[in-house]
Design goal:
Belongs to the purine/pyrimidine phosphoribosyltransferase family. Its main location: cytoplasm. By secondary structure, the protein is of the alpha/beta class. It has a domain of 144 residues: Rossmann fold. It contains 4 helices and 10 strands. It has a 7-stranded mixed sheet, with helices on both faces. Strands 2-10-9 form a 3-stranded antiparallel sheet. Helix 3 links the parallel strand 6 and strand 7. Helix 1 crosses helix 2. The longest helix has 19 residues. About 3% of the residues have low confidence.
Length: 225
C-alpha cells in the first residue's frame, strides 16, 4: 500500500526545513515584478528544487526496478513537479539498458479556498480509473498536509486493484492536524506555512513563480476571493 502512517520510508523525510529557518532574502533572487510586496521570503530556491527532484527520480527508478509506470499527476499544483520528475525518469530510462514505458494521466483534487483547507475533497476528472488495474502507479502530488486528501484518493484508486501504488510529494507540511500519513517519496519537509510558487498557487496566482516562497498578509488580501 502506498505511503505509511506507521513509519517513515527509507528515504526519510526528504530535505527537512526547520521551523526557525529564516529563508532567503527576496533581493538575492529574481522573481516576477508583479509579485513585489506580496511575499515574505524565498523558502526553497528553484535550483535546489530541481536538484532534489533529480535525486527523487533516481530513488523511484531504483525502487520500482525499471518496470513500466503509470504516472497519475494531481493537478493543478503538481503539474510542474510532475513534468520535471517524469523528464528525469525518462533520462534515466534512456541511459539504461532497459526501456521503461511511462504514461501520464491527470486528476484534480480541490481542497483549498484562499489559504484554508475546506475539509472535504472534491475529485475532478480521472473518471476512468479502471485503466489502473494491474499497473504500477506513481501518484505525483505537490503538497501533503493533513494526509486526508491523499488517503481519500488512495482509497478510490485501490478499488481498481493496481499492481503497486507509490506516492511522491514535493512537499510535506508539519501540521498538528496531520493524521500521520507520509508519502513514499518526499522532496522537502516544511513548517506549517502557506507557500506559493513552482506551480503552487494562491487562488490561481503565483504559479509563474519559479521559487517556493512564503506569501505575506498583503499578498493574501490582494488576491483573496
Amino acid at each position: 500500500m502506498a505511503g505509511s502512517s506507521e513509519e517513515a520510508p527509507d528515504y526519510g523525510r526528504g530535505v527537512v526545513i526547520m521551523d526557525d529557518w529564516p529563508g532567503y532574502d527576496l533581493n538575492l533572487f529574481t522573481y516576477p515584478q508583479h509579485y513585489y510586496g506580496d511575499l515574505e521570503y524565498v523558502l526553497i530556491p528553484h535550483g535546489i528544487i530541481v536538484d532534489r527532484i533529480e535525486r527523487l527520480a533516481k530513488d523511484i527508478m531504483k525502487d520500482i526496478g525499471y518496470s513500466d509506470i503509470m504516472v497519475l499527476c494531481v493537478l493543478k499544483g503538481g503539474y510542474k513537479f510532475c513534468a520535471d520528475l517524469v523528464e528525469h525518469l525518462k533520462n534515466i530510462s534512456r541511459n539504461s539498458d532497459r526501456f521503461v514505458s511511462m504514461k501520464v494521466d491527470f486528476i484534480r483534487l480541490k481542497s483549498y479556498r484562499n489559504d484554508q483547507s475546506m475539509g472535504e475533497m472534491q475529485i475532478i476528472g480521472g473518471d476512468d480509473l479502471s485503466t489502473l488495474a494491474g499497473k504500477n502507479v506513481l501518484i505525483v502530488e505537490d503538497v501533503v498536509g493533513t494526509g486526508r486528501t491523499m488517503k481519500a484518493l488512495l482509497s478510490n484508486i485501490e478499488k481498481y486493484k493496481p499492481n503497486m501504488v507509490k506516492v511522491a510529494s514535493l512537499l510535506v507540511k508539519r501540521t498538528p492536524r496531520s493524521d500521520g500519513f507520509r508519502p513514499d517519496y518526499a522532496g522537502f519537509e516544511i513548517p506549517n506555512l502557506f507557500v506559493v510558487g513552482y506551480a503552487l498557487d494562491y487562488n490561481e496566482y503565483f504559479r509563474d513563480l519559479n521559487h517556493i516562497c512564503v506569501i505575506n498578509e498583503h499578498g493574501k488580501e490582494k488576491y483573496r476571493v
